[in-house]
């Protein structure tokens, strides 16, 4: 179908053509002919990178222009929300307003009412449903990207509940990778189903074993050495490769090793450019390894990378400056980063149950990254067989069907919070109406029975009653109590709120940061750091040394002890953070990477805030005040005396400390000082100085030119 033939507003067609899109791909055309433009639900299950997002974009914009209300687009990761937001900005040319919202779960975000397209993570949108901003009523369309994640043990429940809430209230579009039972999902959604394995670039798949690639079509190719030669070969052909491995450590090690091999293949100008790229990285242990890899045109990509580094790697790879990226499956699932050749080095990974095979669904998504539209005539995806039988791999991953999706609703931790939210925010006021709601879920659609779930729901309700989240009258009617209401809004697990409640008296008597951090690291909302065997006794010593500061008693039981020490290690890290230990040092001491530190601080910020709110609800004002101050220290990673300074724009923990040590201790000190003197402080350039003054609301008298000229 030509773009011109699309039954949509002419302005939409003009924007599409402006993006160089003249013709729709066959599955896109099929989807757009399915009455989805008239408001019908749609499930689109087609391979990765074959243009699902574009279908959703066209429908969103057309529906908005037809006056059908706002569109909400939900994604599984923050990074993806940003990526989609940037992509959707083009529609602002038609006068639409696009917004993105992630994080900060205790907000109503009424400001979003001014926007037409809202990109959000699933968790964020779920929290918005609980806060009930006025604009929710205006949502006419919900797009669920990567809807197959409904089958993911740790994220599925949230997505399933969002969809259950929105079904019947808004049009739903589900975008899915190819799965085993799309019919079942479509039926639940009351959606037209479009399934296809059409791809914009032809894909050839094969298995590598003992120096030989056997292609699915029977073809055979010989390679001189190990699987690494598959990447070397791609680069020799002037193309790029994406390698998938099962752990971060492998990703880094393989990247550095490959880099040595690649260096020889690169030209002098290429090497110079890479050197420049490497020079842009901040100093920390992860970046040191990344720098080493970059020098040979290779990078690694995983959840431990900092945000800037991740974007740098993605952009440089797309631009062809980085030739090979070695990635873990986690991050690369959604990010738009195609390559001529995809090499899957690992098909097994280590989990709580030991070594397990990676699901077909995931391997097929990785393979789908092969082939760059417009550049490659075909893409190649090659699975490496080590000890595995190559024929079995071929059968399972290349000719096999992806797994079926199963509802994960009974997953305990998320379910507990969801039941509370139903009672608090969605007017479910008896056990019967709770069960009635659950009958509308995918879980029930799939099993036609709630027996197992009913038991679980009963357990949760007892827990909520016992801990005063809700109360029940003689007729069995539920009423939410203040603690329950606040917990649902804060978007924390009720078990987390209970743990806070149980120890707030102690905090009220003797507040201290280590104790508070230890407590929050013990909650189910905070995944604590691992403690290695050889560190164990050191942390036991530390526990006894700090015993008087901890609010939870040191356990005797071995399993409990491990949990306790992991939380203690996490708490100590956060203590170092607010005592201004340099970031690189923290990463080295605790064996974590920039992305981990960032996530940990963000989580701790949210949990300290939540603890303060629980304290407030329970009438413990002293603790609430103490915790609110502590939250600010966590957010900025500083000692108390720097709090006024970090409020200024572009002033983080490092610059604030430098200013303070140079004698500029308060906002007045800075306002009174001469700009030349402030400029002498380490890390304060003209740009920062300008921001700093604008933050102070101080007008600097400049007669001619910019502040920059003035200070020269
Ligand atoms: P998916 O969401 O299925 O993973 P995307 O929507 O990200 O895939 O599409 C991948 C790329 O293909 C994007 O850069 C998109 O702009 C481009 N694309 C989508 N549809 C077309 C089309 N009909 N013609 C040309 N390019 C397209």
Automatic annotation (TrEMBL):
Keywords: ATP-binding, DNA damage, DNA repair, DNA-binding, Helicase, Hydrolase, Isomerase, Nucleotide-binding. It comes from the Archaea. Its EC number is 5.6.2.4. Pfam families: DEAD (PF00270), Helicase_C (PF00271), Helicase_dom4_arc (PF21280), HHH_5 (PF14520). PANTHER family: ATP-DEPENDENT DNA HELICASE HEL308, DNA POLYMERASE THETA, PUTATIVE (AFU_ORTHOLOGUE AFUA_1G05260)-RELATED. ATP binds at residue 28. HAMAP family: Helicase_Hel308 (MF_00442). DNA-dependent ATPase and 3'-5' DNA helicase that may be involved in repair of stalled replication forks. Belongs to the helicase family. Hel308 subfamily. Residues 33-197 form the Helicase ATP-binding domain. One of its GO terms (biological process) is DNA repair. Residues 226-423 form the Helicase C-terminal domain. CDD domains: DEXHc_archSki2, SF2_C_Ski2. GO terms for molecular function: 3'-5' DNA helicase activity; ATP binding; ATP hydrolysis activity; DNA binding. It is an enzyme of class 5 (isomerase). Monomer. PROSITE patterns: HELICASE_ATP_BIND_1 (PS51192), HELICASE_CTER (PS51194). This is ATP-dependent DNA helicase Hel308. It catalyses: ATP + H2O = ADP + phosphate + H(+); Couples ATP hydrolysis with the unwinding of duplex DNA by translocating in the 3'-5' direction.
